[in-house]
Each structure stands twice: as C-alpha cells, then as structure tokens.
TrEMBL record:
Keyword Transmembrane among UniProt keywords: no
Entry GO MF terms: NADP binding; phosphogluconate dehydrogenase (decarboxylating) activity
Secretion signal, residue range per the UniProt entry: none
Top-level lineage group: Bacteria
One Pfam family this sequence matches: NAD_binding_2
Any one of the GO BP annotations: D-gluconate metabolic process
EC number: 1.1.1.343, 1.1.1.44
Lineage, uppermost ranks: Bacteria, Bacillati, Actinomycetota, Actinomycetes, Pseudonocardiales
Matches recorded under SUPFAM superfamilies: 6-phosphogluconate dehydrogenase C-terminal domain-like, NAD(P)-binding Rossmann-fold domains
Sorted UniProt keywords: Gluconate utilization, Oxidoreductase
Domain 6-phosphogluconate dehydrogenase C-terminal: 162-304
Name of this chain's protein: 6-phosphogluconate dehydrogenase
Length: 304
C-alpha cells in the first residue's frame, strides 16, 4: 500500500520506518530537509497515486488544522486523510465536515507508543466510518504491535472516538505516573529502605503493579539512582486537562487523574502562593512556626 506521511518528528520518523519494514511505500514530508522525501505538501500529493491516503502527524492545534485545510485544497474526491496527532476530539468533526464537502474521507487515530514504537509497535484507537477504517487497515496492521489485532488496535467509534479514547488513555497515564512517583518519594524518605532502585526493580515480576511504565522507571533509576540529574518540573500536553474537563462535563468522578494534573501544575512553582497562605494561616491560628522567604524565593508562581 502507498501512504503519504506528513510530519517526521520523534514519532513520525519511526512510524515511516516501521511501515516501510512491513513492505509498504511511504512518501514523507517534513520541513526538515534532512528527513523529508518531498519538497512540499503539493509535491507529496503529486507523488501519490489516486485514490490517496495521507496521514498527518504534526503537533496538535493550529498546525494540524492548517495542514488538513491545505490538504483539502490539494487532494481530490475519493482520497482519505488520517489525523494521527494528539488533536482534541472536538476538532475532528470540523475537519471531517470540511473534507467531506470536497468528497475527501477522514479518520482520526489516537497513537500511543512514543519513541519505542518502532520496535514495539503502536497502540491505535481510531474513529471514522467502517469503510474508511478498513481501507487504511494495512497501515494500521503495520503500525500496531505483533499479536492479536484487538490487543493493539480498536475501531473505537465514529469520527472523534479515536482521539477521545486517546485523551482518556493519557489521563490514565497521568494517574499511573503520579502513583509511581509518589511511591518513589516515600521510599526515598524512609530510613528503613536502604536500596530504593532495587526495591522498585523487584516489582517488575509477579506483582500487581508491574507495567511498562514501571519498567521505564526502573530504566531511569538504573542510570540515575536518585534522579538527581533531573529537575522536578513537569509539563502537560493538554490531554490531561481535556480528560478532567470531560469528566466534569459527564459528571464522572476522576479524583486521581485530577490530582495528577494539579501535581504537574505544582511542579512548576518555585514558591507556591497557596502553600504560603496555608503557612500563614497555621501561624495565625496556632502559632505554628513559619520559614522566612529566602533571597531567591519568588513571590508568585512560574509556569512555562
């Protein structure tokens, strides 16, 4: 099968390679001249035989929307566009409607696997009409992990369902990572546990908390046992926020995911105004000791 792939960053580059290893032809386009196969989007479209399939793998938001709009002007009726980025699911219906007016089909694909996907495969959650999903199935099969299709691929529902599923997936990821991180900190704080990395490594087999995320934590601890080389500043891609918003919209309690998201916000504060207020209140009502701000302490929060 022939595929056009727009965006050859950390994931797109490896996806191109994995699809090629499966025997398919991939024409990739990226603004980086060192990795691109085509000179422009127009050149990419011109190299593909109709009916075309083009996978968009660029940063979510305006860049994705602009890329899909441009493809809408370049492609023809009968072609198919797949948005495989971390787009918000509410964008999908708008993209699909705009393309449908030109006779171009649309599928949204949530993709998980990160930089390890080249060797391990990618977990895929897609949304769209069954006929359009089936048309791209050779590509989905090339990308997903080896083994039963249903253990690495799901046609989640209509347009938007793939990105909604990936949004929830990432919200769960926030909670899992936060739980492992808090466990690590508690072990570090204990005077009884003398070998924290070995303790966490022992959880990798036979325990109910074993997972790929735990394996990655062990890998990080192998190279930096106390994680001293890192600063505890954690960004969020947006999908955790969207998950919490949807939990509110659907009246679904999601305390773990919400707490994990807020913990990331707290990680960006040099000196938390909220915790300064708590310290002041404890001092006021109970006379509890407070610490004076140092010369490098900020009076507010910093967030990038």
């Amino acid at each position: 099968m022939q595929l056009g792939l727009v965006g050859l960053g950390k994931m797109g580059f490896n996806m191109r390679e994995r699809i090629r290893r499966a025997g398919h032809e991939v024409v990739g386009y990226d603004r980086n001249p060192e990795v691109t196969d085509a000179d422009s989007l127009a050149d990419l479209v011109g190299r593909l035989e109709a009916p075309r399939v083009v996978w968009v793998m660029v940063p979510a938001g305006d860049i994705t929307r602009q890329t899909i709009a441009e493809l809408g002007e370049l492609l023809s009726a009968g072609d198919l566009v797949i948005d495989g980025g971390n787009s918000r699911y509410t964008d999908d219906s708008k993209n699909a409607e705009a393309l449908d007016a030109k006779g171009i089909a649309y599928v949204d694909a949530g993709v998980s696997g990160g930089v390890w996907g080249l060797e391990n495969g990618y977990g895929l959650m897609v949304g769209g009409e069954a006929e359009h999903v089936e048309r791209a199935m050779p590509i989905f099969d090339a990308l997903r992990p080896e083994g039963p299709r249903e253990e690495g691929f799901a046609h989640a529902g209509k347009v938007g369902a793939g990105h909604f599923a990936k949004m929830v997936h990432n919200g769960i990821e926030y909670g899992l990572m936060q739980a492992y991180a808090e466990g690590f900190e508690l072990l570090e704080a204990s005077k009884l546990v003398e070998n924290v990395p070995a303790t966490i490594k022992a959880w990798q087999r036979g325990t109910v908390v074993r997972s790929w995320l735990l394996d990655l934590l062990v890998r990080a601890l192998d190279s930096d046992p106390e994680l001293d080389d890192l600063r505890g500043h954690v960004e969020d891609s947006g999908e955790g926020r969207w998950t919490v918003e949807e939990a509110i919209n659907h009246a679904v309690p999601a305390p773990v995911i919400s707490a994990a998201l807020f913990a990331r916000f707290a990680s960006r504060q040099d000196d938390s105004p909220a915790m300064r207020a708590v310290a002041a209140l404890r001092n006021q009502f109970g006379g509890h000791a407070v610490q004076a701000a140092g010369p490098t302490s900020g009076s507010g929060s910093t967030q990038s």
